[in-house]
Write a structure and sequence with these properties.
alpha/beta; 9-stranded mixed sheet
């Protein structure tokens, strides 16, 4: 963490032989252990707090001194369950979130795991480690879909290499928990290896019964973030789970959960955390973890509890309080300066000793991560007339933006264009290497989307949706030409698009630009009949077998509940 030279310099400051780099003078700061506001001075050398208390250092020559009078200082916010690949990439999301006070991230590794070998993935992680943020990671045990080569991709050797890393704090999340409960040897071995390595295990148990929760606890699961009602929060706490309350673009549950906890008089805030759970860009227009804190404040949660649910509670659970969540000697110099404790949006942000924001203005951007390790999205195939043949009588019916059921298709699929008088559209899932395809029909997506193409999906394979086969083909061509992205095509021209040049799944734009692109695309889809909550999640979860009831996967149209293929994928 800190080498001997750095530690000797830090001791030199305490011993009065060296000046600190930065002093925060007259600081009123939240002490996470005492759970109260204290006053004093904070000395910083490099990226570390070397002292917090009443004293001033003996030497201050060359030191930056910041007077924090009339400010409240809290630990930097921690996002404990982030999917940093929701159109944005980890770097751009961190830069955006950091200036709103969220500077530490416990991040999903799924995209890196699927796209890169471990050697290349770890090189990217090392680049991210050099940024003035703190990145930690999960180690996935399953793909949350059905892959043609699942066992080869998620093999024990690859997973074990992730679990050896000190920046991997968690195993999971366990979207494939039924496999664990049924004794699957691979996922069981992964969980045991993670527990032996001292990692927490995060569940994924929406709507689970008390019996299921008890079984999962006995199998070694530590926490869960899927409670959707206050009763589900109580059930998880009753069984001894760590509970993370979710406030996301598809499950904005936090207000009702907190209101329910307060109404029932539960004094449990020391045992709760909060997350935005990988929300899409536009959800973050009004914040990241600061947004969650504001929801808690608005619900009437004590301000100290609200801030600790987004900092110290998380650090304590993941056993990183020696670095995060406490403003005290030895921790990272990661601080948020507030105008008042009822407003969690910081006026100034210090992260690992570097200013991300000063006097409400962002500082300069930092060195860019080299994303060239991730393979470019280059399609070396084209689609032909036979690819657009549809004949099966079973399709996908959208119940909401992410839940889908099978249904009987009765419309004529031999036509080149479907009527706008109904909400059924052609749907294709195509291998990004052009080897196979799955053709079916989707009901409830929209009633007059002519052609839509997306390289953004759970596995990086290609999704085509539309009423008009010709416009679907044009959307595919445009998406191919831009080397990845989302394209809505209509009457021979692009109606809206989001370029995703990093392997077809991630934007290179800053989050502010990406939000504008996403809002434009969502508005265009809404105008064409998309009536659900979050279209981006529709594309992401179309393949995801951790959700009921039917999914388009690499092996075909898949019945999740029966664990069987309805329509097999077809070789091209």
């Amino acid at each position: 963490m800190w080498d001997q030279r750095e530690i000797q310099q830090q001791l030199g400051v305490i011993n009065g032989k060296l000046a600190p780099d930065l002093i925060i003078q007259n600081a009123t700061y939240l002490h996470s252990i005492f759970k109260k506001w204290v006053t004093g001075n904070i000395w910083i050398k490099g990226d570390r707090i070397v002292y917090a208390g009443d004293r001033m250092p003996a030497i201050t020559e060359g030191t930056e001194i910041v007077d924090a009078t009339n400010k409240k200082i809290v630990p930097g916010y921690i996002e404990p369950h982030v999917h940093p690949f929701q159109l944005y990439n980890p770097e751009t999301f961190a830069e955006y979130a950091g200036r709103l006070g969220t500077t530490t991230f416990l991040s999903d590794n799924l995209t890196f795991f699927l796209l890169l070998g471990n050697e290349k993935a770890f090189k990217v992680l090392e680049q991210l480690r050099e940024l003035p943020f703190s990145f930690y990671w999960w180690a996935r045990f399953d793909s949350q879909t059905v892959l043609q080569d699942e066992k080869e991709v998620f093999n024990q050797e690859r997973i074990a290499e992730w679990l050896k890393r000190d920046d991997v704090l968690m195993g999971g999340e366990l979207t494939g928990w039924p496999r664990l409960m049924n004794g699957d040897p691979d996922i069981t071995a992964s969980l045991i290896a993670a527990k032996k390595a001292g990692k927490k295990i995060e569940g994924h148990f929406p709507g689970s019964s008390e019996r299921t929760l008890a079984r999962m606890k006995l199998l070694g699961v530590d926490g869960d973030h899927e409670a959707m009602t206050v009763e589900e929060v109580e059930a998880r706490l009753q069984q001894g789970f760590a509970v993370t309350l979710r406030h996301s673009s598809i499950r904005p549950d936090l207000p009702q959960l907190l209101n329910g906890i307060l109404e029932k008089g539960h004094d449990v805030f020391d045992h709760l955390m909060m997350t935005t759970d990988g929300s899409t860009p536009s959800f973050h227009m009004d914040g990241v973890m600061d947004k969650c804190i504001q929801v808690a404040l608005d619900a009437g949660v004590n301000p100290i509890d609200a801030y600790l649910m987004a900092s110290y509670n998380i650090a304590r659970y993941y056993d990183i309080t020696d670095l995060h969540g406490v403003i005290a000697t030895g921790r990272y110099a990661t601080l948020n300066f507030l105008k008042e404790d009822k407003n969690p949006v910081p006026t100034d942000v210090l992260s690992k000793g570097k200013w991300l924001k000063r006097n409400n203005e962002p500082t300069e951007s930092f060195e860019n991560v080299d994303w060239s390790a991730i393979p470019d999205f280059k399609l070396d195939f084209d689609l032909g007339e036979k690819d657009f043949e549809f004949s099966h009588s079973v399709g996908i019916n959208m119940v909401n933006d992410v839940i889908t059921k099978p249904y009987e298709v009765t419309i004529d699929l031999s036509v080149d264009r479907l009527s706008d008088e109904h909400d059924e559209s052609f749907l294709m899932l195509i291998d990004r290497n052009g080897k196979w395809r799955v053709n079916t029909v989707i009901k409830g997506f929209a009633d007059h989307v002519q052609g839509f193409a997306s390289s953004y999906s759970n596995t990086g394979d290609i999704i085509l949706i539309g009423k008009d086969k010709r416009e679907m083909f044009r959307a595919f061509r445009e998406m191919k030409q831009m080397r990845g992205g989302m394209v809505l095509h209509e009457d021979g021209k692009i109606a809206a698009s989001i370029p995703l040049p990093i392997s077809g799944g991630l934007s290179a734009e800053n989050v502010e630009v990406l939000i504008e692109q996403e809002l434009k695309l969502k508005k265009a889809l809404l105008e064409r009949g998309y009536k659900h909550g979050d279209a981006v999640y529709t594309f992401l979860f179309l393949q995801s077998t951790h959700l009921p009831y039917v999914r388009a996967t690499q092996i075909g149209l898949y019945n999740v509940m029966k664990n069987e293929v309805i329509i097999p994928s077809k070789e091209r």
